[in-house]
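quick one before i forget lol
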Amino acid sequence: MSWAGPEDIYLSTSLASYLDRKLLVLLRDGRKLMGTLRSFDQFANAVLEGACERVIVGEQYCDIPLGLYVIRGENVVLIGELVRLLFSFSFFFLFWLSHFVFSRSLS
């Protein structure tokens, strides 16, 4: 029987790539939590720093600050990174806007 070394730990779990990044966590009861992932274990229990709960009603939303928050892994439905999604959307929007302004200036 062989033991996993430190280099194998990062290959065996996908949550390691999310450490110290801002995440959106969807829970089984429908709550949406946002915060920075500080720790996790093999059961997907997670610790979020600077967590807040996003409450959405119609087209409006508010964020309820929670602070340091421990999430039990069996309640997690989905985990996703926020920063890259927002960055790629803003990059796409700026690209589209610059293309639109540039094409208008040519005509």
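fyi The helical segments are 6-12, 83-106.
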